[in-house]
Amino acid sequence: MVESIAGTSLLGHRPIYGSYCSKDVLNKRKPSHLCQFPVTQFLGRRVYSSAPLPRWCVQLPVTSFVKSQAMELTKEAYSFREKERIPRDFRYGIHTGVDCRPGLWPPENKADNPALNNPLLRLERMGCGWLGAIFEWEGVLIEDNPDLEKQAWLALSQEEGKSTPPAFVLRRIEGMKNEQAIAEVLCWSRDPGELKRMACRKEEIYQALHGGIYRFRSGSQEFVNVLMHYKVPVALVSTRPRKYLETAIQAIGMEGIFNVIVAAEDVHRGKPDPEMFVYAAQLLQFIPERCIVFGNSNQTVEAAHDARMKCIAVASKHPVYELGAADLVVKHLDELSIIDLKNLAAVESAEFGSEPELEREPDEEDHRHPPSSVGVDDDFW
Q1: How far is CA 320 from the centre of its chain?
Q2: Which CATH topology does 146-210 take?
Q3: pTM above 0.70, yes or no
Q4: What are the residue ranges spanned by the domains of the chain?
Q5: What pLDDT, in 10s, does the model give residues 232-247?
Q6: How far is Cα 381 from Cα 374, in angstroms, rounded to an integer?
Q7: Cα 178 to Cα 86, 129, 194, 197, 245, distances in angstroms
Q8: In 125, 154, 174, 221, which residue has its Cα 20 to 30 A from 234's Cα atom?
């Protein structure tokens, strides 16, 4: 068996093994084991052998011929992965179980940008100070009347001669684009021309019912001023057409505040699809993990989390207990501070180079003594 393993090895050398006896201080015979290997170097495809190393005293247990040859075969099998020559010390370390191959760990920090020449800007980008805010329009920044949306759909159904949509269907199409709601939920038509015509007519009915009167929600204007003071980029997302959205922004006096505006024409689908928020983050040139979405419905929370963004819910038309899935719930935006936003943006995940937490393995004592569901002493009874 030793001869067959030695024949398959590229080295082709057998270790010289022997022993001799020596006397210690107590005049007792003590055997010492010696193992001698020739020095072999890999240079290209050629193998060069030099003079043997001096004798080396091995203090470990005796290594058999088979194990010595197996160690050499292992080093030959993995030698092509190493850039440098194989070390000749033959001291094999303990395997720690950590895969040290390049490119696996640590993961690439997506928040980092090596193209930035200013080290302070690069440090701020990697820290929690680099964040963007994505706002919804109605019910977050301005006052919203949900009944007007329902009345617009009911009026459109009467004009088109369609069946009146029930209340649960109207709740389902909240936040969707008009074309998406007509084609996928109401199932009134599949023709692109008809979808566009009915969607435009529905929006005209809504604007006529609304009357063009816009009013800030309590605390929203002050919070936007705080974001502008700290130079936080702000994006506006809405399923309304752009012309009506720009008219509302001009009527309320918020021109030049939003760095990015995403309207119904810019996306294919509305909520709960995260397309709007992902596109807004791309226009802001921010990664999704550093974007915070401000909405007022569970559809917004679902879409923001699907886009790997944090979400702050504003309890304007829903009570606080219904918005528990959000990362933070407030009644008014002025309850927030810039510190709250930085705490949400300071994510701890693999994208930013932090190691994932390892789950604790249950001890044997935990299996033998399961925890009691009632914490009352038995002597009490």
Answers
A1: 27
A2: DNA polymerase; domain 1 (1.10.150)
A3: no
A4: 2-81, 120-142+216-352, 146-210
A5: 999 999 999 999 999 9
A6: 13
A7: 67, 37, 12, 10, 15
A8: 174
